[in-house]
Amino acid sequence: MTHSATYDRKAIMTAAWEIVRKANVALYGFRVIMRRALKAAWANAKHERAMEARQAKQEQASPAVARIQGAIDALEGKERWAQADYARIGVLRAALRAAQQPDQDASARSRHR
User: Is the pTM of this model over 0.70?
Assistant: First the structure.
């Protein structure tokens, strides 16, 4: 079983040890703290990898897709939504699907050739 993604294990372990140093080891015990710290460090590394992939995908997207995705991100970042925001998010998501459709059709055609 091979994985295409390789992670910097030294950086992950360093991040885990930083968490351990800040934690109350006397209260919870070293094994519990280290286990949670490693899980958190791996989750952060995987999240960073996913965000890098998403950023690369957005850079390859057309300007219309990037503009619509930016509007969706701005709307989703709001603390409180008005009734108009719910309607707008639906319209934006439909527009995003429509804008992405030609890109997906073109990539599907190039794979079938």
Answer: no
